[in-house]
Every structure is written in structure tokens, then in C-alpha cells.
Specification:
It contains six helices and four strands. It is of the alpha+beta class and 135 residues long. It has a four-stranded antiparallel beta sheet with strand order 1-2-4-3.
Amino acid sequence: MGNIVRFEEINNKIVKIKGQDVILDFEVAALYGVQTKEINQAVKNNPRKFPEGYVLETDREELTNLQSKFLTTISPKSRVLPKAFTEKGLYMLATILKGDRAIDTTIAIIETFAKLRELSRTIGEMTKSPDEYKQ
């Protein structure tokens, strides 16, 4: 049970790129306890599982914006720009990665995205009828 990934750990890794909530490949690798190259190799070896929109290519400008936003180095030292996994891409990745840690991590990722959707829905409802939510 020491491998359980917590909501906060995943939530802190979710960033917006091209208007979508994503997790960068090196962050996905850290969550799953594997090397980034293993994550990217899984994508390369299974192209049918990752159609357009499942994994986004980042560019230098996006990476620079993320670095300045968080005032830290977002990417590990690498010459390759990180890939950004959308929720759908993360689900597909889960069909490839095996083991107990992969199962625990996948469940935590699914739960995190579900909580974020619920939170967004609640905020949307509150903005439509704020009087209903006053105490």
C-alpha cells in the first residue's frame, strides 16, 4: 500500500496546454515509477492507442510559460520537448502499463480527473444561480 498516489500529488502535476488539462510525460513517469523514455516508448510502440488529441506535442514557448508560471524548472534536463498527456491519453497509457503501482496510479489519476470535473460542474452551477448557494 506504500505505492498509493494521492489526489494532491496528481492535481499538482496537471497543467493547461492548448486549453486542455494535461500531465507532462516526465510527471507521468514519476507517478508510475518508471523512466520517461518508457512512457514515450509505450506511445511509440502503440500508435493506434494514441490518436490525435490523446498526446499533445509541446513547444518551447509553452514550456517557457509553464516554467515562469511556477518559477521553477518544469522539465528535467532534456533536449526533447515533453509530450503532454490528456485524460484520454492517460487512460490509454493505463492499458499498456502493468503492475500493482500502475493499477494504483491509474485509479488515482481517474479519481483526480473525476473530482476536477465535478468541481468544475459545481462552480458552473454556482455562477449560474449564485442566490441558491448563499447561506
